[in-house]
UniProtKB/TrEMBL annotation, chains A, B:
Membrane topology recorded in Swiss-Prot or TrEMBL: Multi-pass membrane protein
Keyword entries, A-Z: Calcium, Ion channel, Ion transport, Membrane, Transmembrane, Transmembrane helix, Transport
Regions crossing the membrane: 6-28, 108-125, 373-397, 417-444, 465-484, 572-602
Protein name, per record: ERD (Early-responsive to dehydration stress) family protein
Ranges where the CSC1/OSCA1-like 7TM region domain occurs: 371-643
Subcellular location: Membrane
GO cellular component term of the entry, any: plasma membrane
Domain CSC1/OSCA1-like cytosolic: 197-360
CSC1/OSCA1-like N-terminal transmembrane domain sequence ranges: 9-176
UniProt source species: Artemisia annua (Sweet wormwood)
Annotated region described as Disordered, given as residue ranges: 724-772
Chief subcellular location: membrane
UniProt cross-references to Pfam families, sorted A to Z: PHM7_cyt, RSN1_7TM, RSN1_TM
InterPro entries: Csc1-like (IPR045122), CSC1/OSCA1-like_7TM (IPR003864), CSC1/OSCA1-like_cyt (IPR027815), CSC1/OSCA1-like_N (IPR032880)
Amino acid sequence: MATSSEIGLAAAINILTAFAFLVAFAILRIQPFNDRVYFPKWYLKGLRNNPLQSGAFVQKFVNLDFRSYLRFLNWMPAALRMPEPELIDHAGLDSVVYLRIYLTGLKIFVPIACLAFTVMVPVNWTNRTLEESKLTFSDIDKLSISNIPKGSNRFFTHLVMAYAFTFWTCYILKREYEIVAKMRLHFIASEQRRPDQFTVLVRNVPPDPDETVNELVEHFFLVNHPDQYLSHQVVYNANILSKLVNEKKTKRNWLDYYQLKYDRSNKSKRPLMKTGYLGLFGKSVDAIDFYQSEIEKLLKEISKEREKIITSSKYVMPAAFVSFKSRWGAAVCAQTEQSRNPTVWLTEWAPEPRDVYWDNLAIPFVSLTVRRLIIAVAFFFLTFFFMIPIAFVQSLANIDGIVKAAPFMRGIMEVEFVKSFIQGVMPGIALKIFLIFLPSILMMMSKFEGFTSISALERRSASRYYIFQFINVFLGSIITGTAFQQLNTFIHQPANTIPVTIGASIPMKATFFITYIMVDGWAGVAGEILRLKPLIFYHLKNFFLVKTEKDREEAMNPGSLSFNTGEPQIQLYFLLGLVYAVVTPILLPFIVVFFGLAYVVYRHQIINVYNQQYESAGSFWPDVHGRIITALIVSQLLLMGLLSTKEAAQSTPLLIALPVLTIWFHRFCKGRYEPAFIRFPLQEAMIKDTLERAREPCLNVKAYLENAYVHPVFYNEDRWDGSDDGISDEESQKEPPLVATKRPSRTNTPARSQRSESTRTLLSVTDERSCP
Amino acid sequence: MATSSEIGLAAAINILTAFAFLVAFAILRIQPFNDRVYFPKWYLKGLRNNPLQSGAFVQKFVNLDFRSYLRFLNWMPAALRMPEPELIDHAGLDSVVYLRIYLTGLKIFVPIACLAFTVMVPVNWTNRTLEESKLTFSDIDKLSISNIPKGSNRFFTHLVMAYAFTFWTCYILKREYEIVAKMRLHFIASEQRRPDQFTVLVRNVPPDPDETVNELVEHFFLVNHPDQYLSHQVVYNANILSKLVNEKKTKRNWLDYYQLKYDRSNKSKRPLMKTGYLGLFGKSVDAIDFYQSEIEKLLKEISKEREKIITSSKYVMPAAFVSFKSRWGAAVCAQTEQSRNPTVWLTEWAPEPRDVYWDNLAIPFVSLTVRRLIIAVAFFFLTFFFMIPIAFVQSLANIDGIVKAAPFMRGIMEVEFVKSFIQGVMPGIALKIFLIFLPSILMMMSKFEGFTSISALERRSASRYYIFQFINVFLGSIITGTAFQQLNTFIHQPANTIPVTIGASIPMKATFFITYIMVDGWAGVAGEILRLKPLIFYHLKNFFLVKTEKDREEAMNPGSLSFNTGEPQIQLYFLLGLVYAVVTPILLPFIVVFFGLAYVVYRHQIINVYNQQYESAGSFWPDVHGRIITALIVSQLLLMGLLSTKEAAQSTPLLIALPVLTIWFHRFCKGRYEPAFIRFPLQEAMIKDTLERAREPCLNVKAYLENAYVHPVFYNEDRWDGSDDGISDEESQKEPPLVATKRPSRTNTPARSQRSESTRTLLSVTDERSCP
């Protein structure tokens, strides 16, 4: 175990690193030529067009105003200054709610840290257990529960503290849940009109021999929601088109690149290129001509593919975005069961148009359940057996293996430096590469599972990542060994000794986790604000590729908060904080500093940098809440285990009430607040509808919604080729005809088709009457 | 362990007992004076007024047609003859679905038994393990898995069989789920109009300083469901009134009794009674006069209480039954979230009027969650520690204890017979009494938990009873010891040895369970058909009390299927069958006989006897399905444990796939079929509405629904006193006035109140227009 001076040294190093990052950031950000790296958000919002300073030519690139260097930390108060409502306006609710996670961390851990230091540190410190034992120990251990003699009555302090911490955490969690739920409802109810408020995603439209999907959807909703149905947009399978468009974009980039090269060389020499693999083989051709012809070819293919999509019914997926006349109608449809067969006509709130994950819209119900099973099994193996392929790669990546596989490398291999590099670094690299790719692997799993919105994908990936981290980082660090070895041990251990095994080794790992917090938390967060990678990429692109303002905008790459990797990382700190709060309170200040620093840094980034790709109105909060509750219960169970090794067994019955109460608290919160995140109250919808009707009696909702849910490939395509959005425009001009229900025989309802017709007529009359 | 001849003897005894019951039943049922005991259902339906035979006076009481005695088993084919649709008409869907549980048992276990006997019995029999060992064993053990030597390859037969049985069970379960779901939807969609189709129960109406609950409900639904809201019925707290009415009924009974006595004595002597405790103390009065005055007093109180209920707002509970113009409107309201605060304005399908549990309608949300916690903890203690109070009672109920408490009993206590009776029987009786009261205790727990319908109460009690039986009967018999001792053992055992411990002792308990099935199953079911208790009570009542036809009807006491005790009992047989299918297949025929016998008996009872109190349209099937799945998983885990003691460890990985697949199957079924049991598809509602509108365009839904959800105390009361239903009539005559929304300021919607008014006007116009 590290002594306190070692910890102090590590702290000093990490503080210095973090400080160096911050200073570097402070200097770089005020250089005008970095302005687009550190303030892309403002450029994207159109509020900033060029660096604020103006003056001499040099000043366009380097900041010569030395006074500004003195105020190098003034971004911090600036980041904190923007009030929350304005921030919601500026960056969306998701970002603000994400920040609240850090804020929740501060609210939970600052009072806990204070209480722990005033009460528990003296209780722990004033013992001589460690000094009397012959173990080596450090000052940090003297502050921890290890310093209390076995069977001491002082453990009641820890017991009381465990209760206090639990109640405080629950109190804060409840308050935060309440606030976030209110913010969400307010945000949804706020004045902005959004297409997803009126729209429902319908999946698994059953196949019908007589009607196309388009007709079927229209008839179904005309019949079953006669007063509310407005229009719909079927989903096209545009995956091929999307591929073609992407290809065209790449080729276009190359064309630009060669064009620029040609222009820079003062049109002296047409650039040449090879047509083969990676431009290394094949015959040389004029690059500009080549790409121009390629692009033209692609354009033809694209328009052909488009034609096919519009005309052929094979490209229509059994899913549709159905829009309603009012938010009330959409809320009703999204929350109700439509058909007798619960696996068809599945309705759910349409995600925001930006948030839709188009590829998954057509997966049938049975396939979904099978996919879920496959992924559950795959994730189990990934979590517990991921070390096996890595160990295999590691065993391959040794000197002998490489030499055997590639004898010509022998010469290089015998150089001492290369040898030691491969032996020392390669095994670590295999693991590191895996860990870097892990979020992507988890994301792929979620995609395979069939979620229809990016936000849902990210939420699912986040919970998987959390489980992985819990098992492999948290438990893996406490009980050294691979996850599978742990699993094996746990299966062969009595249920009550598992918390004991883990609990007993917790105090010993405190110093390790303190170092972890400093390296991963402090330095990591400080590194985040520096944006080293985007900085380098931006300047490279700017130098080589950027031609127009639009190119420069693309080169900025503002990035976004990635919930699927960021949130599980934060949750690890919640877990560490709650587990160590009673055991080794010295860890708490490190957690508090992490949360404080991260809050300021991410607030700054959200204001100035990140550009969120979608807006889910904070729908991830129940997950965040649930994971903090999990951490709380884990901490309680481990404390029970730890105390039972300390011969304070009389405390067990008292401690057992804690998880029971916590689980109950969780269920209470679930019932009380979760519906706000998954359902949409009719009252709200009605108020909003009524208000809107009063303010804009002539609003044409239909026109507003028309193109909202067109596949992005139909409008995201750049307009260089001059072609218009084929489908969306045609669709928009085509008023859906009043199709008579063709099959009265099926349902034996002579009254129905008549009714739906008359309703439509009546409704159109109403519309006309109210808005001449 | 019992030998096969012992089992044979037990079987013979039980078969004889069952047969004796059946013969007794066959003889008693054809006696005209028992007709109302064995065919009450037909009397209640008004299809039978007196015994079928007619003739001499004696023949009114005793059946002298001796040929009918020869056909004493002809009730069996008669019971099976009624086709299912007719049975649904006759007894309701609940009863038919309940019968399907037995049918499912037959469908699962008949093929399994056949397969087990053709494949596994030879495999088990042709070993000499038991003969070579020095253990005592019976022929039954030779047929079981115990006869296979350790590490034998023959275990692969059992493995394959486990797969076959699992797949067969799942196949049947899926088919049954499908059929029941279809039956339910068909039943709901069938022609009968029922008030609950149009009605939604609203709970937790928030308190409002300005408006009464009545006004508030009306305004809320007028605003939020403007096109669909029809009317509502607030819930009165009629608990006091209900108590008074019951009291009056009891007194009335006594009055009848004395009146009858007086009449029988030829009006010679007015009967006397004492007014004190139990009629034993106090002064003597004329009984008829006394009760007449008492009843009059009560009548006054009742009418006063009624007055209070109608006038005082304190008696109005924050709950209401809200009716809609169409099924579609009700389906929408029941399935959606109404208010921003998810703990108020909770809507759910109104249970059938008969099914409402009135006392629980006013429990607020927070109280509900607290109650749930309390009951969860209480149930845990009940399950694991119920032996403690019983042991305490048992320790009191010994000779010394009684003598100490009541010295005057010493004389009696010293009689040898009394002494041995107390010592031998009392401890057993304490346990038996507890077990008899257990369902009532569980029911009280469910009531305390706050469910609003009797069917939900019964479902919850059933699942608790199942858990209790699983732990205390199934596990308790396999591992002898109290539940708490088991729990203690399990906590201190490794997780993987728990199935091993249980699994290893399973084969040894086969004979015990065979006896259990015969005693509890065979004889129990045969006893059920005899209806000994109702028979005796009926004749007693008939002799002493019955005066009018209505009294006789009340004396019949047809009883009903009690789901909360019956279903868990059946589930125990499913569990035994599935667990022993692979281990000791000889148990299967006993199970099959039980299911067959029970099916016939209960079908007969449902046709002729039981009178269901409510109709939930088979909404308990997901529970039934879930518990059979649980039994399947338990059987798989125990087989894994058992095989691992047989040194057939290579089978474990193959077996582990089974529970995973079974759980996945359960999730699949849950998604595929469960919504049919908890939600009501809009398509169905719309079809039904449209049909109805076409057939009965002038139907006055409002009049139809008016008194549907009035507290039963207002109309169940007998009309002896000549008073009418105070409230319901007044309510019915009082057209709910068109209340203007008083508080436009609150919501800032000048348009709203105007809108709701105009809507109402418009709607009434529509109503008038369509049906002049």
